[in-house]
Design brief:
Elements: E1 12-16, E2 24-26, E3 37-41, E4 51-55, E5 62-66, E6 75-80, H1 98-121, H2 139-142, E7 148-149, E8 155-156, H3 164-167, E9 168-172, E10 190-193, E11 198-202, E12 209-211, E13 234-236, E14 239-241, E15 253-256, E16 265-267, E17 272-274, H4 279-285, E18 297-299, E19 352-356, E20 371-375, E21 396-400
Parallel strand pairs: 9-10
Antiparallel strand pairs: 1-6, 2-5, 3-6, 4-5, 7-8, 10-11, 11-12, 13-14, 15-21, 16-21, 17-18, 19-20
Length: 401
């Protein structure tokens, strides 16, 4: 190749397989030997596919040929990777052939071109920038840390991970597109998805949001302590991560201090609701509290105006009760007796009231009259109503769906 002229061409090219079955690709850069070329398909390892290289002319033009055509849509990356070495030595008293000299100069020029391409791919400061030391910190000071730059523009790794108040983006009806301070989203960022009623985390590698969940055997550890579970809850801007076991299961009934159910709950008012819309709840209670329309809906429990009583479940305190059955109000049975009640006889007070009778029938005397006896809890200080009940407060019963 004594007539080779090295062109100013980047020794790296990418081809997109747009036509199925294509096996030959002409290279825009020059080569001296077939071993000086590396090939990768998509993100695969280099030289993992079978290929041959044909040098077409003395100018170093070459054609790449694959034994099997890369798949349609594949990205084929080809680059020159010749060894930087000297293969000839000229003796002081030996002949000086132009062909040998040209070969060495060609190899040297191609190597320099190759190094220039690699340098161009590297991170570097602008030509107009200040002369700043851009040496990376030692491996023991950068391993497992983020790379950043100090106020002078020098690389440092002492910058800590962003604090939770920057990584938690608050509650949103849809996924945020930037951080609260306008900076780009980063893997590990969190927000509370109001529509799904759960926490979401930014996932690395695809820009997606994933649900935050812990395996049953997992736990959150105390900061700086390995293997020790956390104590208490974590408050993320008003949304609390509870130190408990998983989310609230569907079918859980709670008392709510508002007339509007919280997110993820509906009223326990006996309403018929959709089986598809509330699939998780339907999977738990099915039609136990009512079949709805028999096909597309089902009924939730109706707990309005009633007190809950825990199911006896074989204990014997409330024997004979089936789960979910209604029990009406009642008084425990009591009995009593009244004796020697006449004028001047036994006392009458409290919840009992005596009124003189018009009949003189004091036992054995025919003398003074007796009393007619009446019962009323009112005069004794008791509050009266049409039902028997304890003191209570009216709250909203809600069920998790």
């Amino acid at each position: 190749m004594t007539t080779l002229t090295v062109n100013d061409v980047r020794p790296r090219v990418r081809f997109l397989q747009t036509v199925g079955g294509t096996t030959d690709f002409d290279l825009p850069f020059q080569i001296l030997a077939g071993a000086d070329v590396k090939v990768a398909i998509d993100d695969g390892p280099e030289n993992a596919v079978a290929f041959t290289l044909q040098i077409l002319d003395e100018a170093g033009s070459a054609r790449l040929h694959f034994a099997e055509a890369p798949p349609l849509g594949a990205v084929i990356t080809v680059w020159r990777d010749m060894p930087v070495q000297r293969t000839a030595s000229f003796r002081d008293d030996g002949s000086f052939r132009a062909a040998a000299l040209n070969l060495q100069l060609n190899a040297l020029t191609l190597s320099v071109q190759q190094v220039e391409a690699l340098a161009g791919d590297a991170v570097r400061r602008a030509v107009s920038d200040e002369d700043i030391d851009l040496t990376l910190p030692r491996v023991d000071r950068r391993a497992g840390r983020y790379l950043s730059f100090d106020d002078a523009g020098r690389p440092v790794t002492e910058v800590p991970v962003a604090p939770i108040e920057r990584r938690y983006l608050g509650a949103h009806a849809s996924a945020p597109t930037v951080r609260n301070d306008g900076m780009p989203l980063q893997p590990g960022d969190l927000y509370f998805d109001m529509a799904a009623d759960r926490m979401k985390v930014r996932v690395a590698g695809g820009g997606a949001w994933g649900a935050v969940a812990l395996e049953p055997a997992s736990f959150l550890s105390r900061e700086g302590t390995s293997g020790v579970p956390m104590e208490g809850d974590i408050d993320l801007g008003g949304h609390r991560v509870v130190n408990g076991v998983g989310p609230v299961p569907a079918g859980t009934v709670i008392l709510h201090a508002s007339s509007v159910p919280p997110a993820g709950y509906i009223k326990c008012n006996g309403a018929a609701v959709g089986r598809a819309a509330y699939a998780d709840l339907f999977a738990v209670i099915n039609t136990f509290w009512g079949p709805g329309d028999g096909s597309s809906t089902f009924n939730v429990p109706d707990l309005r105006g009633d007190f809950p009583r825990f199911w006896d479940d074989g204990r014997g305190v409330d024997a004979g009760r089936g789960f979910g059955t209604l029990q009406l109000d009642a008084l425990q049975n009591f009995s009593g007796a009244m004796r020697s009640v006449w004028t001047g006889g036994g006392a009458i007070d409290g919840a009992f009231t005596g009124y003189p009778s018009t009949t003189n029938n004091k036992p054995g005397t025919g003398g003074s009259y007796t009393f007619d006896i009446y019962f009323s809890p009112g005069p004794g200080g008791a509050r009266v109503a049409t039902e028997t009940r304890p003191r209570n407060v009216a709250l909203m019963a809600c069920i998790k769906y």
